[in-house]
Design goal:
The complex is a heterodimer of chains A (about 290) and B (about 300). Chain A has about 290 residues and is an alpha/beta fold. Chain A is built from eleven helices and 13 strands. Chain B has about 300 residues and is mainly α. The N terminus of chain B is likely disordered. Classes of the chains: A alpha/beta (about 290), B mainly alpha (about 300).
Chain lengths: ~290, ~300
């Protein structure tokens, strides 16, 4: 079952092109991470998926057009579109009442159960909660919704590492199953690398790289080589090279593992390292094109 | 832009899926949500009601003196002397409800964009139409109801207090019972509040529209364009048609919904003063409602593609 299908998705704000022709297909049961520099068009693309903005091109989410059908789509889609969008004036018990009132797939007992594990009191207003607690509250609401697609746009921005870890742990242990799909953007991509099944890089509103984690792990390799072997390693055409403590780390695309093992320690790179490599090349190319 | 959406036949899966919450349920909770958020909707009129009650109660202490002097007054003034304070008590409460409604509308679709909570509201299966209508119903029905209930409570308390003051001073309260027509007053208030809700509907709808549109200073955006139109008209055509129209909108309901004789001096104390027939056949009412509907429809459309500011 296809959860998201986009063809030629495009969004412009005046003369600024935020999303520049994205083709994307996300099957049910995947956890997709979207990575890109600030202003790459991640949030705009997500907002289009959620029916928050009009767009050009074809887009179907769970078989619906998000722009014309947002309110019905939201029966099956949950999202945290930004940090701290819970209204500051609302009381915890009121937000539970309200969501229970308007959402047919909201399980209030489940949300209460999640809140039991936190320090959040029912009488508190959102403005009285810490940033971490607001995120916990929002997550408790979202996880109690029996949605088929969950969209998270920088859900843990500004939280400390403990809250971030707890956030993704609850999401995986208490929420995710094969019938659900999760799309997430974050700058702390390393922290969720183990969680993802797929990822894609966006730059200037376009997808520059798209891969499943399995394909990523077999395709990219990183070797740490000592200075005397750098020349030999460079001959194998790495896509990126960086220095740490006098040793070079070279990143290879489609290299022969056996060949690399003889040069040094081989490991799977982090998505973040690959991102830096790919983005370095992207900006290099665009500079070259201009020159 | 998007391709025109084709109405899709409900697939098997969709018909098995849990039915969306009925609009009515969403509407009900959305209205309650407004009352949670905007406690000034009832606290404002409540404070005014308390002040009116307090001031009128103090005035009640002078009632025995007025009753003793009643015979010296000409008959036309006797009613006002006995029951005038009771009759007038609701007016400030209703005025408070009106002002509260104006400020509520200006913030209703602006505040949620400013505090970014619109992103949360839009993550729930509530349509923009339901949201806008749940906000429009506040000045059109909820506030009039609040004003009415508070007025009734204030009048009942004042009535009993007046009786007590008279009895304690050894004066028969019989005259008070005949002059203060409580149930007639209830009807007049319901009529007056309904009439004004309908007549002011385009004003509230305009304010909601501006609050959905403005990126800042909704109050200025609501008022300045109207003044500008009027000024342009004055300069080019040397007429005041638009300004007269606005004045009629603000103050016109009383003129068409009630009739006054010079003796009434602006008071309403008889059911025969109500002119619902004339009110309902006034073109201004229907033109106003048409504008209200257009403004609200525009507000729904605007809210659909409004982002946080």
């Amino acid at each position: 079952m296809t959860c998201i299908e986009a063809r030629g998705l495009r969004k412009t704000f005046g003369s600024t092109v935020a999303v520049d022709g994205i083709d994307l297909r996300v099957e049910e049961g995947r956890i997709l991470g979207i990575v890109g520099p600030n202003g790459a068009g991640k949030s705009t693309a997500l907002h289009a998926l959620l029916g928050l903005i009009p767009y050009e091109g074809d887009l179907r989410v769970l078989g619906r057009d998000p722009w014309t059908d947002r309110d019905r789509l939201m029966n099956e889609v949950a999202f945290i579109a930004d940090v701290a969008v819970l209204p500051r004036w609302i009381r915890v018990r009121h937000v539970l009442d309200y969501v229970a009132g308007v959402h047919p797939r909201f399980d209030r007992l489940k949300a209460e159960g999640f809140l039991e594990r936190t320090e959040i009191r029912r009488r508190s207003r959102v403005r009285e909660l810490s940033k971490g607690m607001v995120t916990q509250l929002h997550l408790a609401l979202v996880m109690a919704i029996d949605a088929r697609l969950l969209v998270l746009d920088e859900p843990t921005l500004g939280l400390d590492i403990l809250y971030r870890k707890q956030f993704y742990d609850s999401l995986l242990n208490d929420y995710f199953d094969r019938g659900r799909t999760i799309v997430v953007t974050t700058h702390q991509i390393d922290e969720i690398q183990d969680v993802l099944t797929d990822f894609l890089f966006i730059h200037h509103g376009r997808i520059v790289l798209e891969s499943s984690m399995e394909a990523f792990e077999s395709r990219y390799l990183e070797v740490m080589v000592s200075p005397e072997r750098v020349a030999a390693a460079r001959a194998l055409d790495p896509i990126h090279e960086r220095q740490i403590f006098g040793r070079s780390i070279l990143l290879f695309d489609h290299a022969d593992r056996n060949q690399l093992v003889s040069l040094g320690d081989v490991r799977t790179p982090s998505i973040a390292d690959l991102f830096v490599a790919v983005m370095g090349r992207e900006t290099g190319e665009s500079k070259g094109a201009r020159a | 832009m998007n391709p025109p959406s084709i109405v899709q036949p409900e697939s098997l899966f969709e018909s098995q899926a849990i039915a969306p919450a009925p609009e009515r349920r969403s509407f009900h909770w959305s209205v309650r949500r407004e009352l949670w958020e905007n406690r000034f909707l009832y606290i404002g009129p409540l404070i005014v009601a308390a002040v009116v009650l307090f001031a009128t109660l103090i005035g009640t202490l002078g009632l025995p003196k007025k009753m003793r002097a009643l015979a010296t007054l000409e008959p036309a003034r006797q009613h006002a002397s006995v029951a005038g304070a009771l009759d007038m008590a609701p007016a400030p409460i209703m005025l408070a409800a009106l002002l509260v409604g104006v400020f509520y509308c200006l913030d209703a679709l602006y505040g949620e964009r400013r505090d970014r909570s619109i992103l949360f509201w839009k993550s729930l299966p509530v349509s923009d139409r339901t949201t806008v209508l749940s906000k429009a119903i506040i000045p059109l029905a909820v506030l009039p109801l609040i004003a009415w209930a508070l007025s009734v409570i204030v009048q009942i308390i004042l009535f009993f207090a007046s009786n007590a003051v008279l009895v304690v001073n050894g004066i028969s309260p019989a005259r008070l019972w005949t002059e203060f027509r409580f149930f007639q007053g209830l009807l007049i208030m319901i009529y007056g509040l309904s009439v004004h809700a309908l007549w002011f509907a385009p004003i509230y709808a305009w304010l909601l529209l501006v609050s959905a549109w403005a990126k800042r200073a909704p109050f200025l955006w609501a008022v300045l364009p109207l003044l500008a139109i009027s000024a342009v008209e004055r300069i080019i055509f040397d007429t005041w048609t638009f300004m007269t129209m606005l004045q009629n909108r603000v103050g016109g309901a009383m003129k068409v919904a009630f009739s006054f004789t010079p003796d009434d001096r602006g008071n309403i104390d008889r059911l025969s003063q109500l002119t619902p027939g004339r009110f309902l056949t006034t073109p201004g009412l229907w033109i106003g409602l048409l504008f209200a509907a257009m403004f609200l429809a525009a507000a729904v459309r605007l809210r659909r593609n409004r982002a946080p500011i």
